[in-house]
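Structure first, sequence second, as always.
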């Protein structure tokens, strides 16, 4: 049995430790890349096709051609996942991510990666047991007039700076950003919902990432 996770990288499935990206890749240099991430539940992947729909919407928005069809991306995702599943312990699960950059500067070939990463359940257990403190930082969410928050790009600096500001005040708190109008928007990898007067309230979709988990919350609420 393999003792190391594998990834898909530009046509090959290789051990994670051997997967390298050029220092001239535009995803590294400029954040010129998109990604999407789903997860497994009891080792079964969750809403893969919905996540790939969003990935390809993001690719269209930033005008990157991944060089493959959506069905091929789905097949590669399952191939990588199935190769990595034997390394999971019972009760553990993976995040499963596809990443596509515009490629090395001066080249027309994209960089395409499919990877798995164990979900840090133990690290986040206290959030479920004790709750999670939330702080709204001074950093505002990038407005849709600048770049659409509905595209899941590699450029997370806006969210990173907000999180750093919050962590200086409370290392255990989570940043939820406001939009330029002063309304709640979202955090890094997180949507915001509140139940009030028997109704579920959440920010308008033009200001936040159209999350698959967000849509699933709507389904459960109905």
């Amino acid at each position: 049995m393999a003792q190391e996770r594998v990834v898909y990288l530009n046509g090959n499935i290789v051990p994670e430790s051997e997967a390298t990206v050029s220092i001239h890749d535009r995803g590294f240099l400029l954040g010129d890349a998109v990604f999407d991430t789903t997860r497994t539940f009891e080792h079964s992947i969750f809403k893969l096709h919905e996540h790939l729909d969003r990935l390809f919407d993001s690719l269209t928005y930033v005008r990157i051609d991944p060089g493959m069809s959506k069905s091929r991306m789905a097949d590669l995702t399952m191939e990588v996942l199935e190769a990595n599943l034997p390394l999971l312990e019972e009760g553990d699960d993976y995040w499963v991510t596809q990443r596509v950059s515009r490629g090395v500067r001066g080249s027309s070939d994209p960089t395409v990666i499919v990877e798995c990463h164990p979900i840090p359940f133990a690290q986040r257990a206290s959030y479920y047991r004790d709750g999670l403190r939330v702080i709204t930082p001074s950093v505002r969410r990038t407005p849709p007039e600048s770049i659409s928050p509905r595209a899941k790009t590699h450029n997370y600096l806006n969210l990173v700076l907000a999180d750093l500001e919050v962590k200086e005040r409370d290392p255990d708190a989570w940043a939820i950003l406001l939009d330029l109008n002063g309304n709640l928007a979202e955090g890094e990898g997180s949507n915001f919902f509140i139940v009030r007067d028997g109704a579920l309230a959440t920010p308008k979709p033009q200001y936040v990432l159209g999350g698959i988990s967000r849509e699933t919350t709507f389904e459960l609420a109905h």
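Margin note: Residues 48-62 form the longest helix (15 residues).
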